[in-house]
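Appendix B, record 7
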Amino acid sequence: MGRLDDKVILITGAARGQGATEARQAAEQGARVIVTDVLDDLGVEVANEIGGTYHRLDVTGSSEWQLVVKEIVSSHGRIDGLVNNAGIFRPDTVLDANEEDFERITAINQHGTFLGMATVAPILKEQRAGSIVNISSIAGMRGHQAIAYVASKWAVRGMTKSAATTLAKYNVRVNSVHPGAIETDMLFDLGTETVDRLVRAVPMGRSAKPEEVGNVVIFLLSDDASYVTGAEIVVDGALIAG
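Structure tokens (predicted):
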């Protein structure tokens, strides 16, 4: 028996990195996984590997969300879980950020998460069951110089709590996960010096594998988390605990 047996789980940004890991873990736990991304070749590869299905989805497009969700419900009859994982990062500070990049990060990280929740929530409400997991960041818990990224991840945290209070009476749960130094391209793209400095600041003395975040996501998608909603779960080795 898997923790997600027969649950229909939609994961955004699942062609690589953290999203692909979550897709693999969900499939291992018995879920019927819908992999979505704009990286078609990689997305198809992940879907084929885990026995799931792939749909192209630009999370910034409302019409694309409507089409993909309609196709999922038509094929599977329901949606049990949504993981809003798609996101991008830029290190720009208030001194060097430009409007175009700020708006792009906002569109994907914040608006994309909103569209996912807004599209799927009516279905979960009708079912009176379901779980939404929004991937934020420790940058959504405390200040950081990357102004657009921070703004988007704080927004994800706030939207999660708003949706949780609205949907709780329908037995629909909404939670946010806040990873720290996780071994994905987003971390490694910061450069060796920055990564080493960040990891040295972690009280546990190491970075984390994507599976360690995925384990939290699987828990929140599962019935084991039946009374957990509106929570913000930090996965950072106590980096921001002090």
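Remarks on this record: The chain has one domain: 8-182+210-232. The mean pLDDT is 95.
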